[in-house]
Write a structure and sequence with these properties.
By secondary structure, the protein is an alpha/beta fold. It folds into two domains: about 160 residues, 3-Layer(aba) Sandwich (Rossmann fold); about 210 residues, no CATH class. Helices cover about 40% and strands about 15% of the residues. Strands 6-8-7-9-10-11-12 form a seven-stranded mixed β-sheet, sandwiched between helices. β10 and β11 form a beta hairpin. α10 packs across α11. The longest helix has 21 residues. It is globular. The chain starts with a helix and ends with a helix. The model has no long low-confidence stretch (mean pLDDT about 90).
Length: about 400
């Protein structure tokens, strides 16, 4: 167990960092996060997407005095041997012993701490009066016990790499193709060798957020599965095809793919049907968390701007809703979005719409005559999608 003097030194290091001005691009998510003692604010997102910077911006926008903000990142190597709920208790006892007022705790990468869920639930049950903001790089951060114990007492937010609006706020207006090529990871956009940095991100995500979760002996098969999926963006993939190509079992591939989704590296898009039985009979399509990262780890054959644009449209929709599917008959409708006003088919094209797009929609409407009017998304109309309410 760390002694209090060492722990205070670590807290001072992180709090000093957190108090620096958050002078980067304001994140849209800041406006949606409400900090109160009654509700835990949970922020989830892929590694390196800007969660720590978002916390700094939350401190600024909520006008939290430096003496009432406690910030710590649980990936600090000095904490590696003490990552359990006893450390959390030691932190709160150390800090609250010197301050009587309400504090706000910013607990970054909380998934590294064992039994943190029970500890946090106790803080709420005992009405400590403090605010808690936690972040994690796994979509299952709120799985299991925490989700049930905090029902109605937590607000979950997802943070993605920069969207196109945030990218434009860097002073790069109307450069959609550059955004597609570079992606939205904040640090990458000012780095002289963006491709190398993105390749390192990919390796870090696989090693730190996926391999340890699935208890794989090696990262290589995980990298191979992820790379194959990312190179096949927008195409329906079967588990057996991936398994056969990589000499793995379908069960192992399924396990790995779920872990990739949990780490926010990829997203799956299921077939649209009102019947669950029909949905599961069709293969899923997959999309990357970031077009720049996809391009950085793909072979030249996989670096298709049309597929990257489709990926970008998926990410734009995913920020708005999780109710996204695709549909396929003789032709294919790229996306079907389920909204309170009904289902809306969306066709994506990097060039001019083709006859095949119209034919697929005609077939779709024959099966779903009450669907909403179709939306065509092209580079020219993409910014309209940013403002669209779903």
């Amino acid at each position: 167990m760390l002694d209090n003097e060492t722990l205070q030194h670590i807290l001072d290091d992180w709090s000093d960092w957190s108090r620096r001005p958050a002078d980067m691009v304001p994140r849209t998510l800041v406006e949606q996060c409400v900090l109160t003692p009654e509700v835990v604010t949970v922020i989830q997102g892929v590694r390196r997407c800007g969660k720590s910077t978002l916390l700094r911006q939350l401190m600024t926008t909520n006008r939290i005095p430096k003496e009432r903000a406690v910030f710590i990142n649980f990936e600090d190597p000095r904490l590696v041997n003490d990552l359990d709920s006893a450390l959390l208790e030691q932190i709160i006892q150390l800090v609250t012993g010197r301050a009587r007022e309400q504090l706000t705790f910013f607990l970054d990468e909380i998934q590294n701490v064992a039994n943190w869920q029970k500890w946090l639930n106790t803080q709420l049950e005992t009405k400590s009066g403090h605010c808690f903001v936690v972040t994690g790089s796994n979509s299952q951060l709120l799985g299991g016990e925490l989700a049930s114990s905090l029902t109605g007492r937590h607000l979950r937010h997802e943070l993605f790499p920069f969207d196109f609006t945030e990218f434009q706020n860097l002073g790069k207006p109307d450069e959609l193709e550059q955004f597609i090529r570079l992606g939205g990871f904040p640090a990458v956009l000012g780095f002289p060798q963006p491709e190398k940095l993105l390749q390192q991100y990919f390796l870090d995500i696989v090693e730190k957020d996926i391999r340890e979760r699935v208890s794989a002996r090696s990262s290589r098969p995980l990298q191979a599965v992820a790379k194959m999926v990312l190179e096949s963006v927008g195409s329906a993939l079967s588990l057996r095809r991936i398994a056969g190509a990589l000499q793995l079992s379908p069960e192992t591939v399924s396990h790995y793919l779920q872990a990739c989704e949990d780490a926010y590296l990829t997203f799956s898009c299921s077939y649209f049907a009102y019947s669950e039985a029909k949905r599961v009979r069709h293969n899923r399509k997959y999309y990357a968390i970031d077009t720049g990262l996809r391009r950085a780890i793909s072979t030249r054959v996989g670096q298709d701007l049309g597929k990257d644009f489709e990926n970008l449209v998926y990410l734009t929709l995913r920020r708005k809703t999780t109710e996204i599917s695709y549909w396929k008959g003789k032709g294919e409708v790229d996306f079907v979005v389920n909204t309170p006003a009904g289902i809306t088919p969306i066709q994506v094209t990097y060039g001019e719409p083709q006859q095949r797009h119209d034919n697929a929609l005609e077939e779709f409407y024959h099966q779903f005559p009450h669907a909403n009017e179709a939306i065509y998304v092209t580079p020219e109309s993409f910014e309209e999608l940013l403002d669209m309410k779903l």
